[in-house]
Each structure stands twice: as structure tokens, then as C-alpha cells.
Amino acid sequence: MSGNGAGVGRHGLTPGKPQTLDFTAGRLVSRRLDPGSRVVAQFSLVESPAAEVNYGCGKDVSLETSAGAGSPLRVDWPRESFLDLPISR
């Protein structure tokens, strides 16, 4: 996985370092919510034969396999984390 800033200047994630990820290029589904409603955010990887997964092995992405990936990605959400959601009326 890499934080790509809407497809510009890809870079790998650094373990133990807080990161800001820009999801503006992703697909959003919207719905009118009642006051006091809670929001649930779900993030997932694109799994498609047309998409390559960069396991961060340092090889050409098309030659990488999950065997060389190492330990699974773990994401911690610190208390100060937030989602900036666009609101329109």
C-alpha cells in the first residue's frame, strides 16, 4: 500500500511514522443523515486482475508476490485521527 496523494508522487509508508493519506480520488457514496447520526468509514484494497499490488519488496511490481511481502500491514488510528468529510446542504 502506498499513500499516493490522488495518484501523484507515489511513496511507501514508513512503519511507526504517522501518515496523512488523501482519499479524494476514491469512490464515495453519500446519503442524507439525521442529526446525531454516526458515520462509519470502510477502507479496502482494490482486488482486480487489472490492478497490481505493490508489496514493497523493492522489485518490479509485476514480479512481486505475497511471499516476499513480510509481515501484514497493521494500521493504528490514534485518538487525534480524523476524517475530513465534505458536507453540502
Task: Provide an overview of this structure.
Helix content is 0%, strand content 4%. With 89 residues, the protein is low in regular secondary structure. The protein has a domain at 45-73. The chain has a two-stranded antiparallel sheet with strand order 1-2. Strand 1 (2-3) and strand 2 (11-12) form a beta hairpin.
Q: What distinguishing features does this structure have?
A:
89 residues; two-stranded antiparallel sheet; 0% helix; disordered N terminus
- Listing every helix as H and every strand as E from the N terminus to the C terminus, the arrangement reads EE
Strand content: under 5%
The stretches of 5 or more residues where confidence is low (pLDDT under 50) are 1-8
Let me know the number of strands. 2
Largest sheet: 2 strands, antiparallel
Shape annotation: elongated
Mean pLDDT over the full residue set: 74
State the end-to-end distance.
Answer: 34 Å
Strand order of the largest sheet: 1-2
Helix-and-strand structural type: little secondary structure
How many H/I helices? 0
The quaternary structure here is single chain
Percent of residues in helical segments?
A: under 10%
Radius of gyration using CA atoms only: 16 Å
